[in-house]
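## retry 2 of 3
previous attempt timed out at serialization; input unchanged, resubmitting
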Amino acid sequence: MVAGLLAVAIEWATLQILSVLIVGFVLGQIHAFFLAWQVFRQIQDKLFEVDRVEQMTWHVTLDDTSIFVRTPASERRTSWHSIQGMTDTPTMVAIWYNSGYGFFIPARAFFDLSARAAFVEWVSERLRSATASSSAINPPIGDAVTR
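## retry succeeded, writing output
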């Protein structure tokens, strides 16, 4: 790029040649970005296979008070009060323990769309109930009762 500018400055090349060089450079950068992105995805897929997470068996029990997740290596019980939220996307339902860590249920785990909608509504109700009971126990600052 710099060589092209110098060539134009000392009149070895025309502006048309410099324009072609710039367009070629930009297209090369775009191609390199997509190529690097594809390689990164392949690396992530290989790491997922090596980690054997896709072969792990998960047993999940959800009830009115908590979520119980059991894997061959660990068990975890989390109350609905500790759940930060839920996200419903076309490919999965995510139940978030915090902003960066959650539990994901793929769309194929549900029999049909109505079963999925019923599950999402049930989880939403548990989260609303947990939020309501938490706010009743711990009133927000400024709502303190004075005598």
